[in-house]
Design brief:
This protein is of the alpha/beta class. The chain is about 25% helix and about 10% strand. Helix 3 crosses helix 4. Bound molecules: zinc ion (ZN).
Length: about 260
């Protein structure tokens, strides 16, 4: 009995030391998805998984992303999504436009069985889903993050130059999730901005951690605190500049 009590006390202490992962973070760390929240492979072609940004075929023509809100989207969820789109409209040349007859478009859903947040990277042709699961993904920052994948961007912490800015602590990474989530993107395209800790595409310090509280991404600058997308209301100016650079030619065609 005493042993049982000791074990119980130890278990309670362990829980207290490592609070559970906030749902809004956990839904971005789906172990079945590339880097936690990227669906399938960009371009759907083996070996080109990380090449979306390199090919103009992955860009949305004229910088316009036709969209449909799935039937699962409630009025409140729609408001959050619209706030995210508004951020793109305020800072970038991209436009999310209600779909009419376009064959390439996104449908945003909140009831996907993955119960997580995800998008493809770039336009993959046909209808492509963007998942903002009702329980955990309905935040303006999360919507902006996923939509930035949709238009062709990967994660900031997977940039090739990230080792100059952060240290990845593999000993704290959940072994069930694996280190592949921290692989550096190899086939990406530099679009003119330095590494930005505050990018909407940067995960927080506990991403894919085996225990919330054990840091996996530690900034080399000790004054920096990494904040997850769901805690933000807008993209960084440098995020916007990258979008405008990537889409300059496409947006110019619209005018
Ligand atoms: Zn992401």
């Amino acid at each position: 009995m005493r042993l049982r009590l000791v074990l119980l006390t130890a278990a309670v202490a362990a829980v207290a030391a490592f609070p559970t992962i906030p749902l809004a973070a956990k839904v971005l760390y789906n172990p079945d998805l590339f880097q936690g929240d990227i669906k399938g492979v960009a371009g759907q072609e083996a070996g080109r998984e990380r090449a979306a940004k390199l090919g103009t075929e992955f860009l949305w023509p004229w910088g316009e992303v036709p969209y449909v809100l799935g039937r699962s989207i409630t009025t409140d969820q729609s408001s959050v999504i619209q706030a995210g789109m508004k951020d793109f409209h305020a800072k970038t040349c991209l436009r999310f436009v209600p779909r009419t007859t376009e064959s390439n478009y996104i449908e945003i859903v909140s009831d996907d069985i993955s119960t997580s947040c995800w998008s493809n990277v770039g336009m993959i042709r046909g209808k492509q889903l963007v998942s903002l699961y009702s329980d955990g993904c309905i935040y303006t920052g999360t919507a902006i993050h996923e939509l930035m994948h949709t238009v062709g961007f990967f994660h900031e912490h997977n940039r090739n130059d990230r080792d100059d800015y952060v240290t990845i602590h593999s000993e704290n990474v959940d072994p069930d999730v694996g280190m592949s989530n921290f692989d550096k993107d190899e086939n990406w395209q530099y679009v003119g901005e330095d590494y930005n800790y505050a990018s909407i595409m940067h995960y927080d310090m506990y991403a894919f951690s085996k225990e919330w509280g054990l840091k996996t991404i530690v900034p080399k600058d000790p004054n920096v605190v990494l904040v997850g997308p769901f805690k933000k209301d807008s993209m960084e100016e440098s995020d916007a500049r990258q979008i405008n650079t990537l889409y300059a030619a496409e947006c110019a065609r619209r005018q």
